[in-house]
Amino acid sequence: MSEVIELEHISKQFGQVQALEDVSFGIEENEVLALVGDNGAGKSTLIKIISGVLQQTSGTIYIRGEEAEIGDYNDAEARGIETVYQDLAIAPNRTVAQNIFLGNEILESGPLGKLLRFVDDDQMEREASELLSRLELNLDPGSAVKNFSGGEQQSVAIARALQSDPDIVILDEPTSALSLDATQRVLDLIKRLNEQNVTIIFISHNLEAVFNVADRAAILASGRLVGVEDLTDVTEDELVGMMMGRARQSAD
Amino acid sequence: MVLMATTSTSDIGKLVSDRLGRFGEIALLVGAIVLLGGIFTATSPVFFSIGNFVNIIRQTSIVIVLGLGMTYVIISAEIDVSIGGVMALSAVSAGLVINAVGPFAGAVVGLLVGLGFGLANGLVTIRFGIPSFIVTIGTLGIARGAAFIVSQQRPIIVRNAAFETAFGGTVGPVPVLILWALGLAIVAGIALWRTRFGRHVYATGDSEQASRYSGINTDRVKIMTLALAGLAAGIAGLLFIGRLGAARADMASGIELAVIAAVIIGGTSLFGGRGSIVGTILGALLISVIDNGLTLLGFGSSWQQLIRGVVIIAAVALRDRDEEGSFL
């Protein structure tokens, strides 16, 4: 498998605080990679660097072998990277379709032709409907998002990330605020995405969810990479130990 | 397929009420205006006449024009309490320039003063991270004080035929003031409802974080909404001169509260993300109908203020309750 993202010696400092120190690993094409670690391990900082929200103090990011400077959200989107943030980044009074196309609205010519273009709600609802059915989500694209459950709202946030047809989707704690039932539905959605050849970076505290959907896990502790493990080779207890900062006592 | 059936727990009733919600709010406002109109018609012989209706709309026009900008500002989850002072400074400056140079130059100066203050409100709010409420309390004082200084505390009498035709005349029986308000409302309404910028105004107020994560420049959106409110104050200043033929530094004192009340009664959420231009127009008309009816019945401005206060609280109490019954 080829690597879609390669992180080389990534460090990030906030004033006196070393949030990340010399983190290097690769993310392979079409895998689900879990990023795990305790609070303050540097997971969120790392994904914010990959998604352009923060810039690393030192180190290099390669995307498909090419050195990439990801200065902001638009740079990340242009490189096929979309991020769904932990805190349900949706606009509750807007419809599902309007959320999916937020910041990327489809326009049609108005009465002054291209001089004054209007938002094309019908087209957005049609395309949102197609996207939702591709993801097997039965949500009315014309209904306000606040009408839906937490799990459904998270699904809308994920659907929005997919609207630009990205290669790589980063999910920051997508199940942290959800019930068991809703969590399972979001995990099923992640599996379906992966079947559609989307590479996924999945941050979670929920190790059961990690073992449920991920192929490999990158473990961070106190800003350092402890290891990257194939999840068929490692037990939950070993993973917890590594999250506490202990390198794996490997027999092999 | 099983998953398809289980992913949606949304209740059809909730969806229907959501879809009807916005129209329901508008219908409620129209109903309230008609009901009050009925009561005043029954109790005052003068209320139900074309002359009185034109009078109500004319009195409302300036509040509507100011309300257009305020609707944008409040939907983007900011507020502007400086509009009365900015309107006075715009009018006084425009009046002086009309008399000294000409109507066109005066109108441009009036608009630029409004736009400049609006832009300054936006830039200071965003760049220094000071709440717009505080910034605009400051600029209210600055603009009002400047209006007194510029006018040397004297009314500026404006006698200019071209300016009066453009802002103070009539087209047939209809005052130009009403046509200005109507035209501006149509432009503002379409821009808010159908353009990308309008959608970004709603999104910014609804969830600034979601909007920012989606690549919307929420700082720019907020600066622009505050600039628009300033521009609306500049336009209102010109309309005021057109209507009364004079500008005074103490004009439009306290108008910001009437405008905010009209916007809130019209269904715009003080927390941002929700609202409409149609609602603001109806909110302003509702207040004017109450004021006009009470005046005709012999109640003074004290009663008008009292009842206006009750209406604001009642409108928000009836509307902004979520499903759990707590006030949003």
TrEMBL record, chain A:
InterPro entries cross-referenced by the UniProt entry: AAA+_ATPase, ABC_carbohydrate_import_ATPase, ABC_transporter-like_ATP-bd, P-loop_NTPase
Gene3D superfamilies in alphabetical order: P-loop containing nucleotide triphosphate hydrolases
PROSITE patterns the UniProt entry points to: ABC_TRANSPORTER_2 (PS50893)
Domain ABC transporter: 5-247
Record key words, sorted: ATP-binding, Nucleotide-binding
Superkingdom of origin organism: Archaea
SMART domains found in the cross-reference section: AAA
Residues that span the membrane, as ranges: none
Gene Ontology MF term list: ATP binding; ATP hydrolysis activity
CDD domains according to UniProt: ABC_Carb_Monos_I (cd03216)
Record protein name field: ATP-binding cassette domain-containing protein
Organism: Haloarcula rubra
